[in-house]
Specification:
Blueprint (H helix, E strand, L loop, with lengths): L1 H31 L2 E2 L3 E5 L4 E3 L2 E2 L5 E8 L7 E7 L2 E3 L7 E3 L6 E3 L8 E9 L3 E12 L6 E2 L8 E6 L4 E11 L4 E6 L2 E3 L4 E4 L7 E10 L6 E9 L13 E8 L3 H11 L1 H46 L3 H10 L11
Length: about 325
């Protein structure tokens, strides 16, 4: 009997221990889920953003605090709701709480707002819980432009009729994260890998460049080229695909157009041609000057021979009188 009693006591103690563990673990599990935030949030620079902090308690909440820092211990307080009051070092300095006293409002998002934010909730038990959210600050791209159309408006490009390819360059500038560019020819996707580089004016953003030759071998006289920027998190779906249209029209063969195109594509050849033209022009000018000098000399010689011939045909007496009166006939070639 005593042994049976002890066994029963042992079982009761064991059951109570298990029950206590279930209660403690259940409370910990419940407490771990009482405060919730979005794990990752994308916000757009120079806009207003909200960070949600959700919780459910049966008792009144005494405070809600938002801090920023990579770890909770290193986080710095930004704004706080305490017993009906809003306080904090940055309250009304670009940060505020919504009417629910828990949603953080960032009035003008800047690059400094990127990182880890902590929402801490204290109830009157007292009991405290917290949750974090990681904020990524994004920058929307400037709508894509085709190099041949710097103003971004649909435009027309004329090419030689026999050309089979025409290189098109599309650029989307100043985005974070970098966007992806897709090029279509008459709604058919063209295979190409865009290049990405830092924007020289804002190194924290990126430029995406796509350069691809367009096939012009069909009999069509017009091609519609569409460049799209996709993959930016904060842009609505309707704006993620900004389109630019390039209409390529083929003209009749024009030799002067081909020459101009060759010179534009090969500036060194164009420079050589200019030098050759200048040299030929100088030679022609020198030859013209020499011809003028020779012609003047020949004319002068012929005039002198004519004067001598006319003089010699005059009567002798008249010649003597003419020599005395006119210095024109007193040249060495005359008979005076």
């Amino acid at each position: 009997m005593p042994r049976l009693y002890l066994n029963m006591m042992d079982k009761m103690i064991l059951n109570l221990g298990v029950l206590l563990m279930i209660v403690v673990l259940g409370k910990n599990i419940a407490s771990a889920s009482r405060v919730t935030t979005d794990p990752v949030v994308f916000v757009q620079r120079n806009t207003e953003a909200e960070l949600k902090c959700g919780f459910k308690y049966k008792k009144a909440v005494s405070s809600v605090t938002w801090k920023k820092g990579e770890t909770y211990d290193d986080a710095v307080e930004v704004i706080k709701y305490f017993m009906g009051w809003k306080t904090g070092p940055k309250f009304n300095k670009g940060y505020d709480l919504a009417d629910d006293n828990s949603t953080l409002i960032i009035k003008n998002v800047g690059d400094e707002d990127a990182g880890t934010w902590w929402c801490t909730v204290v109830v009157t038990d007292p009991w405290t819980d917290r949750s974090s959210t990681n904020v990524t600050v994004t920058v929307p791209p400037i709508p894509p432009t085709i190099t041949q159309c710097p103003n971004g408006d649909p435009c027309e490009i004329k090419v030689d009729k026999d050309e089979t390819n025409y290189t098109v360059t599309c650029t989307a500038s100043g985005s974070r994260p970098a966007v992806t560019l897709i090029l279509y020819q008459d709604n058919k996707k063209l295979d190409a890998d865009p290049q990405q580089r830092q924007n020289p004016d804002d190194p924290s953003t990126y430029d995406t460049i796509l350069e691809i030759p367009v096939n012009l071998e069909s009999d069509k006289d017009e091609f519609v080229i569409t460049c799209e920027a996709v993959g930016h998190h904060t842009l609505p779906a309707s704006d993620q695909r900004a389109q630019q249209v390039l209409k390529i029209q083929r003209s009749q063969n024009d030799p002067t157009m081909s020459k101009r195109k060759d010179d534009e594509e090969n500036p060194e050849i164009g420079s050589v041609k200019i030098g050759i033209y200048a040299g030929v022009g100088a030679v022609v000018a020198i030859a013209l000057i020499i011809s003028i000098i020779i012609a003047a000399f020949v004319v002068s010689s012929r005039m002198q021979d004519s004067e001598k011939h006319d003089y010699e045909n005059l009567p002798k007496g008249f010649r003597n009188g003419l020599c005395a009166k006119s210095p024109v006939y007193q040249s060495p070639v005359s008979a005076c």
